[in-house]
Amino acid sequence: MKEIEIIKPDDWHVHFRDDDILKAVIPETTRHFARSIVMPNLTPPILNGKQAIKYKERIKNAIPKAHNFEPLMTIYLTENTDKFELCKSYQEELVFAAKLYPAGATTNSDSGVKDIKKIMPVLETMSEVGMPLLIHGEVTHKEVDIFDREKVFIDQNLDFICKELPELKITLEHITTKEATEYVYEGNENLVASITPHHLALNRNSIFVGGIKPHNYCLPILKREKHRKALIKVATNGSKKFFLGTDTAPHFASDKENCCGCAGIFNASYCISILTQIFEDAKSLKNLESFISINGASHYQLPSNSTKIKIIKKDYPIKFKKFILVGSEKIMIFNPGFKTFWEVKN
Ligand SMILES: [Zn+2]
After folding, report:
1. 315 is known as an active-site residue
2. Which of 100, 132, 213, 245 has its CA 20 to 30 A from that of 160?
3. How confident is the model at residue 1 (pLDDT cuts 50, 70, 90)?
4. Average pLDDT of the segment spanning 53-70
5. Closest CA to 138 of 156, 163, 121
């Protein structure tokens, strides 16, 4: 049996939702992670510091007593966001970052931004005060193929923002393409990217081959194998610009197994096990700690966590729970479909 010890990880992108779902899913994250950036796309979205603080209270009340966990709150940018109020909320530490959703890009993003130019004054002020910008980097124009949306966003929007505001701290979230890995790798030092476990584990065949698999449907959508390989490369090679953001997102099975199934993968439960297996298979276990515990904190200018976790290699594949229950509804737990031998020691 092999064992590794690493600094306790952080998850730089989670969806906790609210109420009963929040209570059901939060232990799956707080069991293994010390901090998370919490997405603001509730219905209605979190639009200001006051709403963020109230949501933070609800989150804190849902955290199991034995878990030591800090939620970092975000504000949902719209074309009407007040730049002074936004930056005041940041400077008073009510919120940690602002999230840019192009309108219609994903779950609950209808109030998102249609024209990037309209929010440039807000981004400029964020740049001045050092407030991080988190981006769902996909265009949503009808004429753009769903598999090209990230690349087109980089060409049409991200490049513009980076050139106008090189000092702005930007995280291109849940990247999925070779083009994104290259753009971030070559970009200025304030531009970084987060990567999810499911985009490292699967390519788009996992949605379509042998019958449609609604539980592997997420946005940005899974891409070709060459893109997955590019993601593996930058995640495992020790580059400081890439780190974990799981994008774990709970949806009821009934909403996913549906004639208009919703996007999102709930991966919090076995995220560390799956990633450790992926890093071992890539012969890069030595870089696991940078990816899940160090690079994100250093981009956000936070200290790394002071506690550690142990991950143990079993002689047999670990058995995944299939779902968690919220009342009578199931939330299916992500299973990448390959054998995973690593388990976090409690
Ligand atoms: Zn997300």
Report:
1. no
2. 245
3. low
4. 98
5. 156
Task: Tell how far the Cα of 113 is from the centroid of ligand 1, in angstroms.
Answer: 16
Confidence of residue 88 (pLDDT cuts 50, 70, 90): very high
What amino acid occupies position 77? L
3-state secondary structure of 262: coil
With a pLDDT cut of 70, the percent of the chain lying above it is: 100
2 alpha carbon – ligand 1 mean position (Å): 33
Helix (H/G/I), strand (E/B), else coil: 254: helix
Annotated catalytic residue within 10, 19, 159, 247: 247
Residue where the block lists tokens 């981006």: 135
Please, which residues have CB less than 5 A from ligand 1, an ion?
247
Q: Give 103 Cα–ligand 1 centroid separation in angstroms.
A: 14
Using the mean position of ligand 1's atoms as its centre, give its distance from the Cα of residue 246 in Å.
8
DSSP secondary structure of 88-100: HHHHTTS-SEEEE
Q: Collect all residues with Cβ–Cβ distance below 8 Å to 318 and sequence separation of at least 6.
A: 270, 273, 340, 341, 342, 343
User: How far apart are the C-alpha atoms of 116 and 78, rounded to whole Å?
Assistant: 10
Given this model, what pLDDT does residue 109 score?
A: 73
Q: Which domains does the chain have, with CATH numbers?
A: 3-344 (3.20.20.140)
CB 266, CB 31: distance < 8 Å: no
Instruction: Look at residue 314 and tell me whether its pLDDT is greater than 70.
Output: yes
